[in-house]
């Protein structure tokens, strides 16, 4: 996993002090980062338009124009004269080698957005909105310098933001790039090194981490002398809609759990691979409850919640106040945003809209985890957040093919499967969430057609 920082300005400052560097050196490295990417990816005669604002993000762009000058067909458009000292210096340097300045933007092959960076501190004015809108409409390959212009430091978009194919961010990954809203603007994310060893950022404290494919730990079986009990027994509590329990059970069974039993009062028609019972199994090693549950008697629910077994709590259960008494070291919660706002309200933390939550996901996850530090929370979204106490892990591999009924039941089943097999809760959530999203990423058919069954099939080929 890679470290993510809420802000890097103070890190840049510390690096300058510790290593006797200067803003100029850092900026040169920032621009070289983008230059290298362009030089590697594009042919020499391609037209590049760099659009620079008045701050240091703009200054990065002016430096980039100098670096690409004569190697590509580069044009530089300034929204206004640079305001910072280093911006003015970059302009002097660019002018001295006759960089091509243009008075209007145009549809180049490549557009580099250097209008606003991390210094965006107020709403965009009409000129900036028009400019970004026009750039977005161009059919060019779009690169955002540091952060797409219009996306603020909390990862929010008030009116509009530059829609990049790739964001080349300076020094280290920033939290803002991983809000759910940001997902439609950042494109791919790449870090440009600033002339400071990686170790500097790696040794700097943070509590946010971006998950990588290599963080996936599959439940491979490495003991031959084993039996089905070796791999746990998951109980999925069924309620009004047995379909959700079946999906979760099939996901769990395919992900290695030795035995899966659906617990239901009525005899249900379920796949022959899955067992059925009316009471919790004696050798049960984990429980999944909530998916398709509907109404349940409080005393029955309480009898399940008080069992000292790892549990995945999902869906309908986030509307029942009873769970607040059991948010302990056995529990994983897997709400989607609507369920999470219900949980926040039940817990008397806050009463907010989905929009407010989606604009401030990290903030509310933190507030919840401060109140319930023992619980492991997985907040669904286009960038999944897994959190416990102070630590946050972000899975950014998800895509829109997962936006379909049943995807969440598969995820709960996968997490419960790993818990039943003995994974710790955070590790179980990380691997299950990665498996879930990577299965969707590997799906080769049209992105509208993925079903929970396809997802489960994909898990088998990871
Ligand atoms: N800190 C450092 O040492 C480094 C900074 N670098 C670059 O510097 C950037 C940050 O530079 P700045 O702090 O100068 O900020 P920005 O370049 O992001 O922009 C801020 C400028 O735009 C104005 N502004 C802010 N919001 C506006 C709005 N809504 N409408 C109109 N004007 C607005 C501000 O008054 C300021 O003049 C980073 O994103 C990065 O690209 C890099 O060169 C690497 C090194
Ligand atoms: K930018």
Automatic annotation (TrEMBL):
Signal peptide start-end: none
Binding positions ((6S)-NADPHX): 56-60, 117-123, 146, 244, 292, 336, 409
Catalytic reaction(s) noted: (6R)-NADPHX = (6S)-NADPHX; (6R)-NADHX = (6S)-NADHX; (6S)-NADHX + ADP = AMP + phosphate + NADH + H(+); (6S)-NADPHX + ADP = AMP + phosphate + NADPH + H(+)
Keyword set, alphabetical order: ATP-binding, Isomerase, Lyase, Metal-binding, Multifunctional enzyme, NAD, NADP, Nucleotide-binding, Potassium
Native source organism of the sequence: Aliarcobacter cibarius
Enzyme Commission number(s) of this protein: 4.2.1.136, 5.1.99.6
PROSITE patterns according to UniProt: YJEF_C_2 (PS01050), YJEF_C_3 (PS51383), YJEF_N (PS51385)
Record-stated family: In the N-terminal section; belongs to the NnrE/AIBP family. In the C-terminal section; belongs to the NnrD/CARKD family.
CDD domains in the cross-refs: YXKO-related
UniProt name for this protein: Bifunctional NAD(P)H-hydrate repair enzyme
Residues holding AMP: 408
YjeF C-terminal domain residues: 211-462
Record PANTHER family: ATP-DEPENDENT (S)-NAD(P)H-HYDRATE DEHYDRATASE, ATP-DEPENDENT (S)-NAD(P)H-HYDRATE DEHYDRATASE FAMILY MEMBER
YjeF N-terminal domain span: 8-202
Function: Catalyzes the epimerization of the S- and R-forms of NAD(P)HX, a damaged form of NAD(P)H that is a result of enzymatic or heat-dependent hydration. This is a prerequisite for the S-specific NAD(P)H-hydrate dehydratase to allow the repair of both epimers of NAD(P)HX. Catalyzes the dehydration of the S-form of NAD(P)HX at the expense of ADP, which is converted to AMP. Together with NAD(P)HX epimerase, which catalyzes the epimerization of the S- and R-forms, the enzyme allows the repair of both epimers of NAD(P)HX, a damaged form of NAD(P)H that is a result of enzymatic or heat-dependent hydration.
Residues binding K(+), per UniProt: 57, 113, 149
InterPro entries found in the cross-reference section: Carbohydrate_kinase_pred_CS, CARKD, Nnr, Ribokinase-like, YjeF_N_dom, YjeF_N_dom_sf
Tree of life domain: Bacteria
Name of encoding gene: nnrD
Keyword Ligase: no
HAMAP family to which the protein is assigned, alphabetical: NADHX_dehydratase, NADHX_epimerase
Keyword tRNA processing attributed: no
Necessary cofactors: Mg(2+); K(+)
Cofactor note: Binds 1 potassium ion per subunit.
Assembly behavior: Homotetramer.
Gene3D superfamilies, per database record: 3.40.1190.20, YjeF N-terminal domain
């Amino acid at each position: 996993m890679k470290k993510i920082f809420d802000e890097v300005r103070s890190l840049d400052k510390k690096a300058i002090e510790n290593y006797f560097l200067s803003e100029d050196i850092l900026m040169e490295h920032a621009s070289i980062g983008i230059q290298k990417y362009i030089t590697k990816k594009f042919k020499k005669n391609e037209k590049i338009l760099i659009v620079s604002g008045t701050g240091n993000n703009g200054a990065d762009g002016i430096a980039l124009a100098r670096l690409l000058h004569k190697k590509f067909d580069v044009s530089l458009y300034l929204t206004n004269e640079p305001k910072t000292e280093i911006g003015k210096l970059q302009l002097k340097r660019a002018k001295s080698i006759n960089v091509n300045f243009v008075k209007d933007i145009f549809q180049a092959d490549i557009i580099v957005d250097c209008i606003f960076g991390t210094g965006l501190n107020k709403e965009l004015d009409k000129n900036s909105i028009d400019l970004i809108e026009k750039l977005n409409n161009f059919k060019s390959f779009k690169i955002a310098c540091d952060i797409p212009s219009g996306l603020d430091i909390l990862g929010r978009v008030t009116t509009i933001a530059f829609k990049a194919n790739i964001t080349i961010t300076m020094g280290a990954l920033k939290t803002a790039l991983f809000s759910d809203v940001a997902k439609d603007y950042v494109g791919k994310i790449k870090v440009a090194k600033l002339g400071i060893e990686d170790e500097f950022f790696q040794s700097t404290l943070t509590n946010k981490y971006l998950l990588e494919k290599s963080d996936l730990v599959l439940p491979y079986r490495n003991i031959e002398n084993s039996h089905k009990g070796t791999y746990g027994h998951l109980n999925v509590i069924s309620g009004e809609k047995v379909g959700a329990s079946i999906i979760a059970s099939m996901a769990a069974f395919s992900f290695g759990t030795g035995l899966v039993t659906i617990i239901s009062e009525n005899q249900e028609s379920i796949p022959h691979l899955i067992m059925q019972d009316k009471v919790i199994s004696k050798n049960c090693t984990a429980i999944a409850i909530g998916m398709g549950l509907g109404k349940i008697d409080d005393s029955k629910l309480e009898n399940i919640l008080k069992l000292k077994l790892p549990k995945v709590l999902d869906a309908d259960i986030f509307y029942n106040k009873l769970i607040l008494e059991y948010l302990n070291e056995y529990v994983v919660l897997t709400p989607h945003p609507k369920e999470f706002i219900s949980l926040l309200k039940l817990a008397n933390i806050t009463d907010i809209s989905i929009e407010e939550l989606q604009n401030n996901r990290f903030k509310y996850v933190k507030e919840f985890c401060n109140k319930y530090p023992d619980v492991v929370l997985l907040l669904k979204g286009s960038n999944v957040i897994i959190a416990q106490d102070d630590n946050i892990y972000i899975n950014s591999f998800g895509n829109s093919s997962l936006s379909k009924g049943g995807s969440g039941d598969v995820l709960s089943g996968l997490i419960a499967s790993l818990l039943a097999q003995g994974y710790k809760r955070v590790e179980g959530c990380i691997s299950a969430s990665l498996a879930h999203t990577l299965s969707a990423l590997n799906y080769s058919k049209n992105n509208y057609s993925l079903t929970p069954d396809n997802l489960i099939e994909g898990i088998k080929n990871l």
